[in-house]
Write a structure and sequence with these properties.
The structure holds 2 protein chains of 2 kinds.
Chain A (H helix, E strand, L loop, with lengths): L1 H8 L1 H7 L1 H43 L2 H4 L3 E2 L4 E2 L2 H32 L2 H16 L2 H26 L20 H24 L4 H9 L4 H30 L2 H6 L17 H8 L6 H39 L1
Antiparallel strand pairs in A: 1-2
Chain B lengths: L1 H42 L3 H4 L12 H33 L3 H15 L2 H16 L4 H26 L2 H9 L4 H29 L3 H4 L19 H9 L4 H35 L1
Helix pairs in contact in B: 1-11, 3-4, 3-6, 3-8, 4-6, 5-6, 6-8, 7-8, 8-11, 10-11
The chains are: A mainly alpha, B mainly alpha.
């Protein structure tokens, strides 16, 4: 804090003594402010333009736009329930698979693996995040979907599908393409984001805390469970929300493998759609103002959802940073 | 004794699961890259860069798509880099806990993870609708908007790493603040900032969703920035989803090209960052 205060304070007297330099200062300072405000304008512009574009759809259908499940371009009747449902369910599946795996990866990198392996391993996991969405999509369509169709789905139908109640989640023919496959690909895609935040927050735990636990004979598991996790709780939740934000808005990979059907099936083996997949598939071909406005309305809803999730993630991570700063 | 055994066993179990999770993650990296190599290498040929995308059923290449991707990436980088660096400079050098600074940082981090398809919709609304047609310009702007938050973030991080003593030394010589920033702070952070730009370029070179509604696609060779332009990601999308074997094989070739470029940029940027770190 004090270092920052010095940094601001020092140049000022110099500038006051030398008015010649202060003109350049004003210009440069102003320039940086303009571009910083531009960042705000982009966000404002996104909200305003999407909200404006969605207005006709919201006006026409009212609340029915969110709770209606019809999607019929021929009769101009649109409801966003199916894509909203698909977005939430695929993200839920992604989180169910992604969180434990990311936790395992972060645990391995911070507590278990030899020091020389940490960086290469971390980089390799981060490269998973660098592979573009479309590559996951094409891989999912040609490799993962057939594999799931032949090996995983028949097994799920034969085992879990027989149980009354949750059996309906796994009903129907094994298509390979559907909500489950989309959720699975999303899990792989958000894994690096969650894992790298978890790794970063795990590393903020003061070694002394961990060493004192090890010193009284705690196992690695106990140290992580009782010391590391309680200390980094907020950061871990922040990381998870960050991953969730990514999963909700992920477009191309999902578009390839979800099947794009505007029907809500109870079974996660059946095709569905998400907001982003519906946009990617239909937007350029949407004929008619109401159709297009409904799609923009979908985008607006998606943006609001992700904005809330990401803002919550950010608030938690900031709180962790401040807490760590105060503790240190 | 029994308690001890139980604790030890549960520890082994967690260690094994954690190892398994890491292997699971790496498995997918290997699987995805392996599939790309197997399917992509066979589809590579010289005609990729000498011929434009073909109609279904005939041979062709990806020349127009490669050119389009390069052109839009370059324009986006030219727009996004100065914007991002100046905004990042504001956060690192001028904001210091001010409300505006905190707010811009917060919003920037949200834009960093915002769905890219939403950026596509936004640019569609502000550029494509008023212009009345899809264009490479709109595609470039969409890519630039995706790039800006990445560069803002890395610029701020890198500038914050510059030791204050350097700034103080320059200030003691009587330089005005803008000169300190441009000639001292930028200079000592330039490698880090460049790394950030490289990572941002890597990020946008595979983006598909924002181009769908902005640059669209173009089956023919075109250098007109004011018209729809072919680009690798959208061509891959269209060709992979098609039932034609020639198109699918071109999609694999394109996918390999993009992924190789992105991995080289990523690993290059990291090596560059650690190499320049050693130099200091």
């Amino acid at each position: 804090m004090t270092a920052e205060a010095e940094m601001v304070a020092i140049p000022q007297p110099a500038a006051r003594r030398r008015p010649a330099g202060s003109a350049g200062d004003t210009v440069f300072h102003g320039l940086t402010i303009v571009f910083a405000v531009l960042v705000l304008l982009i966000l404002g512009g996104v909200i305003v333009s999407l909200g404006y574009g969605a207005l006709p759809a919201f006006r026409q259908f009212g609340l029915g736009f969110i709770v209606g499940s019809a999607w019929n371009p021929v009769t101009d009747n649109f409801g966003a329930l199916a894509p909203i449902y698909g977005t939430l369910v695929t993200s839920l599946i992604a989180m169910l698979i992604g969180i434990p795996v990311a936790f395992g990866v972060a645990l391995f990198i911070t507590e278990l693996c030899p020091k020389w392996l940490r960086r290469p391993l971390g980089t390799m996991i981060e490269l998973l995040a660098a592979i573009p969405s479309i590559i996951y999509g094409i891989w999912g369509l040609f490799v993962l979907a057939p594999f799931i169709q032949e090996h995983i789905e028949p097994a799920l139908i034969a085992t879990l599908g027989k149980i009354p109640g949750i059996g309906m989640l796994f009903a129907g023919p094994p298509l390979g393409i559907g909500v489950l496959t989309a959720g699975f690909i999303l899990a792989v895609m958000v894994l690096p984001f969650i894992a790298s935040v978890m790794r970063d927050v795990f590393e903020t735990v003061p070694p002394m805390l961990k060493e004192s636990a090890y010193g009284i004979g705690a196992t690695t598991t106990e140290v992580v469970w009782r010391v590391v996790l309680p200390y980094t709780r907020i950061g871990v939740v922040g990381g998870i929300l960050l991953g969730l934000g990514r999963a909700l808005g992920e477009t191309m990979a999902v578009t390839f493998v979800i099947g794009n059907s505007h029907h809500i099936h109870a079974s996660i083996l059946q095709p569905g759609t998400t907001i982003s997949a519906a946009l990617a598939n239909e937007f350029t071909e949407a004929v008619g103002d109401l159709y297009q406005s409904s799609l923009i309305g979908l985008g607006f809803i998606l943006f609001i959802i992700t904005f809330i999730v990401l803002a919550a993630a950010k608030v938690m991570l900031i709180r962790l940073q401040k807490g760590a700063g105060a503790a240190a | 004794m029994q308690l001890y055994t139980r604790r030890r066993l549960s520890n082994y179990l967690v260690v094994a699961l954690s190892l398994g999770a890491t292997a699971f993650g790496l498995l997918f990296l290997v699987l995805v890259l392996g599939t790309l190599l197997v399917n992509g290498v066979g589809a590579l040929s010289l005609t990729l860069v000498t011929q434009a995308t073909p109609p279904p059923g005939s041979a062709g290449g990806l020349m127009n798509a490669i050119f389009g991707s390069l052109a839009m990436t370059v324009i986006a980088t030219l727009v996004g880099t100065p914007t991002g660096i100046l905004a990042g400079t504001f956060l690192a050098e001028y904001a210091h806990g001010s409300r505006l600074g905190e707010f811009v940082r917060f919003i920037n981090d949200i834009l960093l993870s915002a769905p890219s398809i939403i950026i596509g919709l936004f640019v569609y609304a502000i550029l494509v609708v008023p212009m009345g047609h899809f264009s490479a310009w709109a595609g470039s702007v969409a890519l630039a908007i995706i790039m800006i938050p990445v560069i803002v973030r890395t610029t701020e991080d890198m500038l914050t790493l510059v030791p204050n003593a350097l700034r103080e030394a320059a200030a003691a010589l009587g330089s005005p603040k803008w000169k300190i920033i441009v000639m001292v702070t930028y200079r000592s952070a330039v490698q880090g900032m460049l790394t950030g730009v490289l990572l941002a370029v890597a990020r946008i070179s595979g983006e598909t969703a924002p181009l769908l509604f902005t640059a669209l696609n173009n089956q023919f060779w075109s250098t007109n920035l004011n018209a729809p332009m072919a680009n690798l990601p959208v061509v891959i999308f269209q060709f992979a989803m098609s039932p034609y074997a020639d198109w699918q094989s071109l999609a694999w070739a394109g996918a390999l090209l993009i992924t190789a470029t992105i991995l080289i940029l990523n690993i290059g940027a990291r090596l560059f960052a650690s190499w320049s770190g050693l130099q200091k």
